[in-house]
Amino acid sequence: MHPVLEGIRLVTFDLDGTLIDSVPDLAVAVDRALDDHGVTGRGEGRVRDWVGNGSHKLLERALRDATGELPAPEVHESAHEAFLHYYGQAPNVKTRLYSGVREALDVLHGRGFALALVTNKPHAFIAPILEEFGLSAHFGLCLGGDSLPQKKPDPAPLRHVARHFGMDVQECLMVGDSRHDIDAGRRAGFRTLAVPYGYNHGEPVAASRPDAMVESLAELV
Ligand SMILES: O=C(O)COP(=O)(O)O
Ligand SMILES: [Mg+2]
């Protein structure tokens, strides 16, 4: 086992960019929503840098990129609704698990670690994605960006998870790909582990000074 797991009993994972490479499907849904509003699609490469603060922010960033200004609230809302519709229809067409993810989750689950998922993605999308990959039974609790009033980098979702499992925060590890995960983890008092392959607004996640980094989650186990 990786030294970062020493004394840890609960491991909380981020979803997008940590467990799954979801940007190909997210970008299709964003671009279809933009197209419905007379806006040219921005493409996968741009969308990759905008994921991590939930779906409202994702659509705001896409519209702003296209027009150079903040979208009017009704345009933003309508484009967001369209995104939810399109993404809900097809969340698993091109989305893939990153290498090492299944092995890490199987081994941690098998060894009795409590596992949780905290994503800023809307909660409704979590179950269909986990089911597609046969990972639903691994997680004792899953929170989306709309599950609580606060989302990452606010520490509230992580504190909620620790309380749910009756764990001290010193027994908890946050695993993520972005500064929002590492900041939320640090503020909650969790130990933090980062992966470098996900989405962090085009910047290295090492700059957030996680307690440890691994190239693949397989290194955890
Ligand atoms: O911003 C999102 O929608 C998802 O981001 P996360 O799974 O990396 O928290
Ligand atoms: Mg992420």
TrEMBL record:
It catalyses: 2-phosphoglycolate + H2O = glycolate + phosphate. Mg(2+) binds at D14, D16, D177. Keywords: Carbohydrate metabolism, Hydrolase, Magnesium, Metal-binding. Belongs to the HAD-like hydrolase superfamily. CbbY/CbbZ/Gph/YieH family. It comes from Litchfieldella qijiaojingensis. HAMAP family: GPH_hydrolase_bact. Its EC number is 3.1.3.18. Its cofactor is Mg(2+). It holds the Pfam family Hydrolase. This is Phosphoglycolate phosphatase. InterPro entries: HAD-like_hydrolase_sf, HAD-like_sf, HAD-SF_hydro_IA, HAD-SF_hydro_IIIA, HAD_sf, PGP-like_dom2, PGPase_prok. Specifically catalyzes the dephosphorylation of 2-phosphoglycolate. Is involved in the dissimilation of the intracellular 2-phosphoglycolate formed during the DNA repair of 3'-phosphoglycolate ends, a major class of DNA lesions induced by oxidative stress. The gene is gph. Pathway: Organic acid metabolism; glycolate biosynthesis; glycolate from 2-phosphoglycolate: step 1/1. The active site is at D14.
